[in-house]
Amino acid sequence: METKVLPAVAAVAASAALFFFGTGLAPIAALAWIAPLPVLLLAPRVGATTAVVAAFLAYLLGTANSWSYFLHSLSIPLPAALLIVGGGAGVFALATLLFRALSRAGRPLLAMLSAPAVWVTALFAASLTSPTGVVGTLATTQADVPVVLQLAAITGSWGVEFLVLLVPTAVAACAAPGVATAARLRTGAVITLAVAAMLTYGFVRLSDVDDHAERLAVVAATEPHWAVDVAGPAGRLLVQSYVDEIAGLPDGIRMVVLPEASFAADEASLPALVEPLSQVARAKGADIVVGVLSTENGHRFNTALDIHPGQPSVAYHKWHNGGASNVQSGHELAMPDGIGLAVCMDVNFPNPSRDYARAGARFVAIPASDEDVDGWQHSRAALLRAVENGFSVAWSDQRGLSILADSRGRVLAEAATGGPAPFAVAIADVPAGTGPTFAARFGDWFPWLCAALTLVGLAAAAVRRRPTAATQSGQPGETRSLRVPLR
């Protein structure tokens, strides 16, 4: 009995530890590539139940790095948090089960492709149904590795997600017992060529950047605040402090972005915000984008307001509000001078980012507000959208990490709130985006391809096939049936 249990316990412990440090709110990018490997190496060598339980526990325990965040999150309800953690573990278990069935059937290449396809298909389905979108996935763990991120320009972030799981699955498929040597070689050749092509494309794309750059700034008060009424004393004081900070910025700045819902205003009080910011905008010759919780004709919107020197302000209403009943959602783009406007949670979804790319936006300004601990993770979700779609991004976060990044996913400047200075400020010369990418033009083609691969894998796993050495030997708890069990 001990010989059966110890390898499973060791695999669970190893994968859980690697998931813990390789994913979550502060991941070590390299560990994400090997986190699934111990469980995947185990799966073809044990019974189906053991493989499923091991995979489920490994992923579940690995997400302990985010349990506290989920339990205390203001934007993710507890039932949704439990579904995210439990659902992710369940999907990883299902992917492992399909990998086991196909590798034991002597189909290592299909096993290698099908397991990450299951993962991407499930995440894509979640993205279509979740009111808060999808963020903090395996793709996000690679957000500070620009050469890997370039794949997103073709496949969207889904391709990065697929690749991170594909590599350990390929290693496990090649190492599975009973697989013919020719099949191992084919599988190894495919993954080697795929990784080589990805790296080549990544390095080439990183060398191709628009020479035109604009000096941008993100400015966030260090002390967090939410929707301060501009008509009250605290609001007037905060407006003046932002005006003074912007006035002290270096000359030549094209755009300054302030955080989400920095102020609250209605039709009567809005001039108390717009007029002082317009004056400093004219003095600096810069657009100012500010987050406002605005009341318009009796409806409340989470707004990004662009204040342009000498022109009427332009308002964008946040599309995605996480199902909040007290805030109306917008549905229109806003592109003053070709700069797209979005707000925080909008980056958890493909749109409006994709629509901005197709409309020709080369920069997107995003007022945001996070929960301190998730500041890195959410800022990198914005960075992924930039690479996917071919625009540069200015992300101003009042409780987290503000960044300026180019369309290749390189962070050019960043500033975290919570420091001793009254404002967190980042300034950089940001190259203009290079225009809509293949992913922006053709949308979600890759996750649909993954859905098709999943169906092919399930069908192949259900087909009778000559048993491999592993199935002929008879694993504990298994029959010697020629049909590979899926349940």
Automatic annotation (TrEMBL):
Query: GO terms for biological process?
Result: lipoprotein biosynthetic process
- Where does the record say this protein resides? Cell membrane
Recorded GO CC terms: plasma membrane
Domain CN hydrolase: residue ranges: 216-432
Claim: Cell membrane is one of the keywords in the record: yes
> Any idea which GO molecular function terms this record carries?
N-acyltransferase activity
Segments spanning the bilayer are 6-34, 46-70, 76-102, 109-128, 148-173, 185-204, 445-463
Stored Pfam families: CN_hydrolase, LNT_N
Q: What is the name of the protein in this document?
A: Apolipoprotein N-acyltransferase
> Which organism was this protein described from?
Amycolatopsis taiwanensis
Q: What is the lineage of its organism?
A: Bacteria, Bacillati, Actinomycetota, Actinomycetes, Pseudonocardiales
